[in-house]
Write a structure and sequence with these properties.
By secondary structure, the chain is of the alpha/beta class. The protein is built from 17 helices and ten strands.
């Protein structure tokens, strides 16, 4: 854990030198969006200070992490996996290479294509894909797409084979990161400008900026599954489902560190809890580590229940 996190927590009575349990090196995914970064920061602190692990965060995305596990058996822990658009997840489970530990977002995630509320207020027809294709100027003639490597990018690109946005006067802008997607929404709101693109919840962005989910088509599990495959032979249109958001571990890690696997199976946030953390971070220009401090210092009643007895003793000062 970074010095800021340790200093902040030590200042309220948590010693950086705890009675360590037997735990070795641990690798955990560091996904490139805010909620996942908070999960990793909180989990890292608890593993290091509660269980005595030496933790390394590995920059990842869902497809990258799953490919790495398939090829190298690492990282040990994969958290905030949005598995609805990741066929490889089920393949690794079925092959016995990973085990599912739990739902890191207990309410699931919400994914889809959105437009600002003020656009819908002025032009209700923009609440459906059909209305947008008939009036592309209402959304600024642009679709804000996911970054390369994200599962939603594959889904969106496959659906666009059916839609042909360019042929309907809509430019596709492929973002380089989740941060630029968030900035695009904030900038649109500042000017009450049109905006149309992919986003998800829980996020500070959708907490601060009211957005409306666009109706694409009735959800179809088979179509959505195919759209999530880069080799989908028959793309189609389907709404995104409520997304299962999981924490998993390699089977080898669960066998090697059962106490850590058990703790990680308990690490779970409601959307309201995560939205609160993310909104605080946004308002305070705070890092994920600072967001972890905010959560840990204000919610010992939540995370204290995630720990075993020895870890609770190690973190007793913070649980007072």
């Amino acid at each position: 854990m970074k010095r800021l996190l340790l200093t902040s927590l030590c200042s309220i009575g948590v010693s950086a030198s705890v009675a360590h349990a037997e735990c070795g090196d641990v690798t955990i995914t560091q996904m490139d969006w805010a909620s996942a970064s908070v999960v990793t920061a909180v989990s890292t602190f608890l593993m290091e200070q509660g269980y005595g692990c030496s933790v390394t965060a590995v920059p990842s995305s869902t497809p990258t992490a799953l490919t790495s596990v398939a090829e190298t058996g690492t990282p040990d822990l994969l958290t905030e996996l949005w598995v609805n658009t990741a066929p490889a997840y089920r393949e690794l489970l079925d092959a016995g290479k990973i085990v599912e530990l739990g739902d890191v977002l207990s309410d699931g995630g919400v994914e889809g294509w959105w437009v600002p509320q003020y656009v819908i207020d002025a032009h209700p027809e923009a609440s459906t894909l059909e209305g947008i294709l008939e009036n592309p100027e209402l959304v600024g003639n642009r679709f804000h797409n996911c970054p390369d490597g994200w599962g939603c990018r594959t889904v969106n690109d496959n659906m666009n084979q059916v839609i042909d946005m360019a042929g309907n006067g809509i430019e596709i802008f492929n973002h380089g990161s989740g941060e630029t997607l968030a900035t695009a929404i904030a900038s649109a709101y500042a000017d009450e400008a049109p905006w149309f693109g992919f986003y998800w919840a829980p996020t500070a962005v959708l907490g601060k900026y009211p957005m409306v989910l666009v109706e694409l088509a009735e959800y179809d599990a088979d179509i959505h599954a195919c759209n999530g495959d880069t080799d989908c032979a028959s793309p189609g249109l389907s709404n995104y489902p409520s997304a299962a958001v999981k924490t998993a571990a390699t089977t080898a890690f669960q066998e090697r560190e059962p106490a850590i696997a058990e703790m990680m199976s308990q690490v779970t946030f409601t959307n309201a809890q995560m939205n609160g953390i993310l909104a605080w971070m946004e308002d305070n220009n705070a890092s994920a580590e600072e967001g972890a401090v905010y959560f840990l210092t204000n919610n010992p009643d939540i995370w204290g229940g995630w720990l075993n007895e020895q870890a609770r003793e190690n973190l007793a000062a913070l649980l007072q």
